Amino acid sequence: MGTGFGVGSSWILSAIAPTVQLITVDHSKEVVDITANHLKHPNVEFVCGDWKEVMAKGPFQFIFADAAAAKTMEGELMLQVLANGGMLLMDDFTPEEHFPEEWKVKPDKVREFWLNQKDLVATEIYVTPTSSVILATKMRK
Ligand SMILES: C[S@@+](CC[C@H](N)C(=O)[O-])C[C@H]1O[C@@H](n2cnc3c(N)ncnc32)[C@H](O)[C@@H]1O
Fold first, then answer.
1. How many Cβ atoms are within 10 Å of 93's Cβ, its own excluded?
2. Of 13, 3, 9, whose CA–CA distance to 91 is shortest?
3. H helix runs in the chain, sequence order
4. For residue 52, which atom of ligand 1 is closest to its CA?
5. For atom 22 of ligand 1, which residue has the closest CA?
6. pLDDT tens, 59-80?
7. DSSP state of 49
8. CA–CA separation, 91 vs 25, rounded Å?
9. Which domains does the chain have, with CATH numbers?
10. Using alpha carbons only, how large is the chain's radius of gyration in Å?
11. Percentage of residues in the chain with pLDDT exceeding 70?
């Protein structure tokens, strides 16, 4: 049995194995209601609330993090609920060569954080010529 959770995500459901449980959490009731009404699936649990409310259901083998706070200031917490060997996916990154001038002079704290965690093997993958994702696996030594 695998467990994963997605923040505001639904597309993962189309690719999961029948033995996998998916928890999707969003603090917008509107988003949760629309998604829950659209997707009827025995393996999915819809939670309306802050993503941290599902931490107790972890550790998770897969996390798709789509909420800004989980990717930034709450990143350490998210790392705690990723299982050893588990995979983390975050989208909506802009490859460095496409940075506008004003970004080039600022530290890229989010990318630096995720690409330099000692417990993660992480990489950035282009999904279009101008956008990328970070894919990371927890490999605690
Ligand atoms: C970039 S949107 C993603 C929307 C969704 N993936 C989709 O494709 O429609 C980010 C979502 O995260 C939710 N969100 C933001 N902060 C959150 C938090 N702390 N806990 C739970 N959900 C949060 C927002 O309500 C929003 O729906």
1. 20
2. 9
3. 29-38, 68-71, 75-80, 101-104, 109-115
4. 20
5. 26
6. 999 999 988 999 999 999 999 9
7. S
8. 17
9. 2-138 (3.40.50.150)
10. 16
11. 91
The two structure tokens encoding residue 54: 């599902």
Residue 77 DSSP code: H
Could you give phi then psi for residue 45, rounded to 5 degrees?
-120, 125
Token pair 């800004």: residue: 68
Ligand 1 touching residue 35 (CB < 6 A): no
- Positive or negative, the CA dihedral 122, 64, 113, 100 is positive
Q: How far is CA 55 from the centre of its chain?
A: 13
Q: Could you tell me if the CB of 69 is within 6 A of ligand 1?
A: yes
pLDDT value for 5: 54
